[in-house]
Amino acid sequence: METNKQLGLPVGVTLDRYIKRSQSAFSSATGELSQLLRDIALAGKIVNREINQAGLIGLAGSMGHANVQGESQQKLDVIANIRFIRALVNGGEACAIVSEEEEDIIYTGNDTGKYVVAMDPLDGSSNIDVNVSVGTIFSIYRRVTPIGTKATVDDFLQGGHKQVAAGYILYGTSTMLVYSTGQGISGFTYEPSLGEFFLSHPDIKSPENGTMYTCNDAYMEYFPEAVQGYIQHIRERGYTARYIGSMVADLHRNLLKGGIYLYPPVPKTPDGKLRLLYECYPLAFLVEQAAGKASNGLCRILDVEPVYIHQRSPLYIGSTAMVEELMETIQKPQELT
Ligand code: F6P
After folding, report:
1. Residue 128: what are its φ and ψ, rounded to 5°?
2. For the chain (length 337 residues), average pLDDT per consecutive 10?
3. Which residues line ligand 1 (CB under 6 A)?
4. Does the pTM exceed 0.85?
């Protein structure tokens, strides 16, 4: 195995084998969560193929109308939504889904399913037409309503700390699936000629500190004063900015290299832009599993009590030292040195 690593050869652990191995650590596991993760990976492979061909088969571009969030809906948003819903319906482990693309809860028809899934099928989709990375984000809860009944909004509004698993698929220069079931976080790279995800990033740890910050600089003058002060301060220290505008890609880079992603409240989106259930919670779960931090500026994101399924939130997420310094600044702005 060591020789494989030295030669740069793939470690050879498929996602499927890894899921199986992880499941065997829990004697009470029934295999349903494992199957749910496989369903998501399968939909990810299909969406990956469609993204790769989008420019050739007329799938690029907008639908010409807005989604439930009031954002321009792209053809691939719709396709990814259909692909993931279909995979979850066919899989049978999820009884209901919340999607960024749909106003109401989607019922899978599998009322005996133990799990519910909140997802953003294609995040950062305005970047598709220009061949820039996009992602899928998912969050999984064990339902709180009785098995065999219709799921309700309560199954989704349990709070981020109740997630049993979360992850993202990054459709980038290579496609990666990164997920956690609460025992650390691992990344798998897709090998398209074999049609398999292989373990490539075992036990990812977020660097304790970093020198990169990630935000939409155009809104800087509207950021809360303390956030502006913090950014000014780290610029003076020589930190650098990186912003793709696809959160999965921005977060993935910062997770591997160290950094902080900031989306504060601005007048256009006074409650923050990012969605709590299928952006903030799952990404915060992953980052915490990698020893990083995530806050809404007042408290840990995973402790925020959700009120409705498409709720938005400010988000500050990334390397622990950076998030902590920002939080100290927000709480005591005058103490910047
Ligand atoms: O919906 C979320 C999202 O597309 C993120 O992926 C991205 O980080 C952010 O919005 C970009 O927002 P803005 O265009 O305001 O910078």
Report:
1. -65, -45
2. 54 89 78 94 96 78 71 85 97 97 96 97 86 96 97 98 98 96 96 96 97 97 97 97 97 98 97 97 98 97 98 98 96 63
3. 123-124, 216, 245-247, 250, 273-274
4. yes
